[in-house]
Description:
Layout: H1 6-16, H2 20-26, H3 66-69, H4 73-76, E1 84-87, E2 93-109, E3 112-119, E4 128-131, E5 135-142, E6 151-152, E7 176-182, E8 187-192, H5 198-203, E9 207-213, E10 222-231, E11 241-244, H6 250-253, E12 256-259, E13 264-270, E14 277-282, E15 287-291, E16 300-302, E17 304-308, E18 312-317, E19 323-328, H7 332-336, E20 340-346
Parallel strand pairs: 2-5, 4-9, 10-13, 12-20
Antiparallel strand pairs: 1-2, 2-3, 5-7, 6-8, 8-9, 10-11, 13-18, 14-17, 14-19, 15-16, 15-18, 19-20
The chain binds copper (II) ion.
Amino acid sequence: MAPLTRRKLLGAVPALGLGAAALHATVPHSHGTAVAAASGDHEGGGAAHTAGGGGHAGFRGGAVDHKANGFDPHTLVRDFDWGTTSRLPGGRILREWTLAAAEQEIELAPGVKFAAWSYNGRVPGPTLRAKEGERLRIRFVNGGRHPHTIHFHGIHTAPADGVMGLGAGDIPPGGSTVYEFDALPYGLHLYHCHVRPLAEHIAKGLYGAFIIDPKDERPKADELVMVMNGFDTNFDRANEVYAANTIGFAYVDRPVRVKRNELVRLYLVNVLEYDLINSFHLHGNFFHYFPTGTSKEPVEFTDTVMQCQGQRGILEMRFPFVGKYMFHAHQSEFTELGWMGFFEVVD
Ligand SMILES: [Cu+2]
């Protein structure tokens, strides 16, 4: 059977209409519990992700089983992990987390399973949040079957960088280490595994957002986090499913509800692998954009922003009118393969 490519999928999707059901119908997948990709298949190029005799018997009426996934994008969008704190001698705050890498199957769209690698049982991993100048200590436990690390973006010493040959280097299966550094600079950052082959280790799901709040805090707002990602379900080094926070069309099926005239602050991170850029476009409104969140002064008032992999920024907006307002990648093909949603503005 000829490999199913993203281009072929795109040819099929418009005829079926947008939505999770369309992805279900077009993305190669199996209906059983088996995932064609044995977890940790680095070589890729393996068997297509299809199993015989599936039909649509396993189709659950267009709904992803978030409970089985172990996380729900509707919770995740407002979930910030502050860790636990204690005082160091001298009074400074020490903030600590434990992150564990694991292998788990994730349903990306109804019936579309993916053999993911996760931090703390979710993709993206927890949104770690700290305050500028605190001491941060992250204990990493590798529960996977391949070496992994956590590489943090930020200002720190070489041994805390989470790359091979520095500090503890690659952490073997069953191994653990501790990364420790100061929370600097304030802004919106990210973390991800940095073991080779890097593209696979990132694309499998080992990444998350990392927020350092400035000492003089930002104005109070309804805060959201969206990690823009994608999934190569058939190992052809192109993505078949695109999303913000992993589940295609999740915020179409259930929009992100916000209040009219209230300040909304969106932490937007791009970790998308295999595509050069990603973007965020907002309908019916404009936002102020703070690249990397490292300044209090926005650089742009716009409705579309573009990010390369690893780029991130803070968007601030207020919706003057009630109603449903779409957001999506302005690369139309990403939109049609899952990366779109709605804000529902209410009084
Ligand atoms: Cu890894």
